[in-house]
Amino acid sequence: MNKNSISLIDSIIPIIILIGLLALNVFLYGDGSLDGANQLALLLGTGVAVVIGLKNKIDWNHILKGISKSISATTPALIILLLIGALAGTWLISGIVPSMIYYGLQILNPKIFLFASCIICAIVSLASGSSWSTIATVGIALLGIGDALEISTGMVAGSIISGAYFGDKLSPLSDTTNLAPAMAGTDLFTHIRYMLYTTVPSYIITLVIFLFIGFSIDTTVSNNDIEVLLQTLNQSFHITPWLFLVPAILFILIIKKVPSIPALLIGALLGGIFAVIFQPDIIKQIADTGASFVKSHPFEVFTGIELQYLKASYMGVINAMGNSTSIVTDNAMMNDLLSSGGMYGMLNTIWLIICAMCFGGAMEAIGALKKISQSIIRYAESTGSLIAATACTCLFFNTTASDQYLSIVVPGKMYSDAFRKKNLAPENLSRTLEDSGTVTSVLVPWNTCGATQSGVLGVATIIYLPFCFFNIISPIMTIIYGYFDIKIRRIKD
Fold first, then answer.
1. What's the pTM?
2. For the chain, how far is it from start to end, CA to CA, in angstroms?
3. Could you give the CA distance from residue 41 to residue 37 in angstroms, rounded to a whole number?
4. Least confident segment among 26-35, 171-180, 413-422
C-alpha cells in the first residue's frame, strides 16, 4: 500500500453509490430486494472501492487479501447459520416448536403478547448469553404464536429482537459483553454495572411501548379460532412436555459455555432423534418413501423395529435438516406456521453476508474506513460530542464493514486515547460501544446480524426495524447521558 492515505472524497464515494443502489433496490423490489438485488449492489460497491484503491496506487493483492480476511472472519457465523437452519427443521418435525406454539396459545393473551415476548426473550438471552440462539429457538416459536394471534410479524419480531439483545447485552456469557470492556480497558463486571444506567431505562421504555401497543391492538382472533388451531396441532403432532427436554439441554450447554457450533449441532441432532421417537407419522410424510411399513424381516419381528421405518427416519431427518419442509394440515393458517427452510433456506442469507464482507474488506483494505473515522473524531470536543461520535462510528462500521465485532473493536481502539485525554473512565467507552455497536447491528439488512435474524425469522429487516424499540433507544440514551453529563465517570487522580 502506498504511503499517501486515501482522500475523504474517495473514501465516501463507494458508500454513496452503495446507498443509492440499495435505495433503488428497495424502491423497485420492496421486500424482495434481499433475494439478489442487494447482494449485487454490495458487489458493485466493492468494485467501485477496488477501482478507487487502484487509482490511489493500492496493490490489488493487498485489497484481495483484505477481502479474503473479511470473509474468513465470518466463517463461524456462516456455520452457525447452517446449523440454525438444520435445528429449525428438526425442531419442527419433532414437534418441539409446535408444542411451544400449542402451550403458548393457551397461556399468552394477545393484549400482553408483545410485552411478554420481550420479557421471555430477555430472560432466555440473559441466561444463555446468546441473542442468536434465543431468536433461533424461542423466537421462532413466539413468532408462530404471534402469527396465530394475527399480530403483525414486524411487531412480534421487534419484541423478540428487543428482548434478546437486552439479555445478550447484559449477560456475562455474551461474547460482545466481554469484547467491549476488553477493547476499552476495563473489567467485565464494572462494564455490566455501568451499562445498567442506560440499558435498564431503555428496556423499561421499550416494555411500556409494547404494553401500550398490545392494549391498542384490535385482533379478530376469537377463543374459537384458537381452539381450532389447538385441535389442528393436536391432530398433526404428538404434543407432550417431554419435547422440552431438547431446548432445556441446549440452554444448559450454552450456559455451560459449550461453543455455539457443537451446541447447535447437538440440539439439531436431538431434535431429529425426538422426531423419530415421538412423530412417526410426520417422519413418514417428510421421508415420502412410499413404503408400506409392514414387518417381514426376522430382525424386524424380533426387535419390533421396521427396517423401512429406519430408512424413513434417516431420510426424514436429513430432509428436514437440509431442505425446505412443510407440514400439511387442514388449516391454511397453520400450514404457513409449520414450515422451515432448513440449511437450504439459509443460503440466501449466507450469500448476502459474503457480499457484505467483500464490501467491508475492500473498504478497510483501501483505508477508506480509517479515513472516515479519523475525520469524525476531529469534531469530538466535548464529552457529549465524543460519546456521540463514538456511537455514530459504531453505527458507521455496522453499515459499512457489516460486522458487529468490527463495530466494537475498531471504535474501541480509535477512541480509547481520546476518552483518556478527557479524563473519562474506560467504562464510559465500553458502555457506548455496547449501547451503539452491539444493538444496531441487527438493524442493518446486510450486516451479519441483520441478515441472520431476518433469515431466521423470515421477516425482512425493514419490516421489523421500526419495532426494535430497545435497539433504537439504546444509542440515543447513551448520547443523552453524554450531553447531560449523567453517570459519566471520571478517572481519579
1. 0.77
2. 42
3. 6
4. 26-35
pLDDT, tens digit (0-9, with 9 covering 90-100), for 54-98: 999 999 999 999 999 888 877 887 888 788 889 888 988 998 888
Q: Please work out, in degrees rounded to the nearest 5, the angle formed at the alpha carbon of residue 246 by the alpha carbons of 459 and 93.
A: 55
Strand partners, 326: 339
HSE-up of 46 (CA within 13 Å, CB side)?
A: 24
Other Cβ atoms closer than 10 A to 379 = 10
The rounded radius of gyration (Å) of the Cα atoms in the chain is 24
Contact 448, 403 (CB under 8 A): yes
Would you give the distance in Å from CA 454 to the centre of its chain?
7
Q: Which three cell numbers stand for residue 450?
A: 441483520
Residues in the chain: 493
User: CA-to-CA distance for 193 and 123, rounded, in angstroms?
Assistant: 18
- Which tens digit of pLDDT belongs to each residue from 355-389? 888 888 898 899 887 887 777 777 777 889 999 99
**DSSP letters spanning 412-455:** HHHHHHHHHHTTB-HHHHHHHHIIIIIHHGGGSTTSHHHHHHHH
Q: Please provide the DSSP assignment of 105-162 as one string.
A: HHH--TTTHHHHHHHHHHHHHHHHS-HHHHIIIIIHHHHHHHHHTT--HHHHHHHHHH
Calculate the CA 124 to chain-centre distance.
14
- DSSP helix/strand/coil, 239: coil
Q: In the 8-state DSSP scheme, what is residue 325? A: E
